[in-house]
Amino acid sequence: MKAVVYYEHGGADKLIYEEREKPKIGEGEALIKVEACALNRLDILTRRGVVKTTATLPHILGGDIVGYIEEQKGSNLEIGTPVLVYTAITCGRCQACLSGKENRCQFLKMIGFHTDGGYAEYVRVPIRNLIPLNPKIPLEEYAAIPIDYTTVWHALVERGSLKVGESILIWAGGSGAGTVACRLAKLMGATVFTTVGSADKAEKAKSFADYVFNHYTDDVPKSVKEATGGRGVDVVLDYVGSATWRKSLECLAVGGRMITFGGLSGFSGDVDIRAFYTRHLTLIGTYYGTKPDLHKALEFVEKGLLRPIIDSIYPLKDAQSAHIRMEESKHFGKILLKP
Q1: Is residue 153 part of a domain?
Q2: Which residues of the chain have pLDDT under 50?
């Protein structure tokens, strides 16, 4: 099969399109013929070696996968069934898994991070990770869903408890996660503030956000305070990390909540402890989400409420170009690869 692999950490030029052996499956596994695989910032960080993984090199990236069952051992799913892949591989036996919190599994692994992923014509996954589809949108678009939709749903609904009438600042509203978070927050009845990096992206973001700022040129905390009469917002969703951490705290109203599930610009941030306790702030960490989160998000997609925003589609052989587009933040929405 054809696949994109990297043999050493570094720039996008380390991604190599080559012939690889088709994966062999065992009991309880399925071989998926990949229809499309979406890019994630985690792919970039993993390729660079910024985020460490236990995967051995050479490695195949890609955790956002949609495709068809080519082979399977241990289920009654028919060959050729279109399926979406839930990205987290869990043990199914620990306390977290048995209590419905599989994203907290102590043995959790992520497809495309800890194991070979979907930057290939075929990928091997556990059968229990498959979600059979009756596609309501083009099948390739489902590749935009597993990681961003599951993570955002869990962050805003399950962990953040966003409520009707609240206000929320979402950094990087033109990203894959940002375009999902802004629209979901609007559907939940929140007033949405977001940031983007260009005038072109700002025009696009205005279709789903109440206030749009430029995170490169605007004083975001000042702008948020002016728009809220000095109060600040109830919630900030910050997955940018070091570059925005202190600004996020400045944007919060008294009693506000800050949600984080990433650190694209770095994983360290100063905390004014006194500000936390005197302003009654709450910091909420969250990582990925559960399979029920993914199912609930899928319902919104298939009802036409949260259709993925696709920036561009690249042939698998052009993965280097796709990575460069993401690294230069030229995209608005998701970038897909198609074998």
Answers
A1: no
A2: none
Return the sign of the alpha-carbon dihedral for residues 40, 43, 49, 54: positive
Question: Is residue 112 included in any domain, yes or no?
Answer: yes
Same domain for 136 and 204? no
The rounded distance, in Å, linking the Cα atoms of 174 and 178 is 6
Q: Does 240 lie in the same domain as 140?
A: no
- Is the distance from CB of 89 to CB of 108 less than 8 angstroms? yes
Predicted confidence at residue 132, as pLDDT, reads 98
What does each C-alpha distance from 233 to 56, 117, 181, 185, 252 come to in angstroms?
A: 43, 38, 15, 13, 5
**CATH number for the domain that contains residue 183:** 3.40.50.720
pLDDT for residue 264? 79
On whether residue 108 sits in a domain, the answer given is yes
Domain check: are 232 and 328 in the same one?
no
* Three-class SS state of 64: strand
| Residue indicated by tokens 């006194």 | 274
Q: Which residues of 2-30 are buried (b: 16+ CB within 10 A; e: fewer)?
A: ebbbbeeeeebebbeeeebeebebeeebb
pLDDT at 270: 82
Residue 241: the pLDDT is 87
For residues 97 and 190, membership in a common domain is answered with no
DSSP 259-295: EE---TT-S-----HHHHHHTT-EEEE--S--HHHHH
> What is the β-pairing status of strands 334-338 and 29-38?
antiparallel
Q: Which two tokens stand for residue 242?
A: 């070091």
Contact (Cβ atoms closer than 8 angstroms) between residue 97 and residue 291: no
Examine residue 290 and state whether it is found in any structural domain, yes or no.
Answer: no
pLDDT at residue 335, as a whole number: 98
| CA triple 77-79-85, angle to 5 deg | 65
* Number of domains observed in the structure of the chain: 2
Query: Are 138 and 196 part of one and the same domain?
Result: no
Extended beta strands in 49-156, E state: 64-72, 82-85, 88-89, 109-110, 122-126, 130-132
CA pair distance 136, 308, nearest whole angstrom: 12
Place of tokens 């985020």: 51
Q: Looking up tokens 């919060």, which residue turns up? A: 252
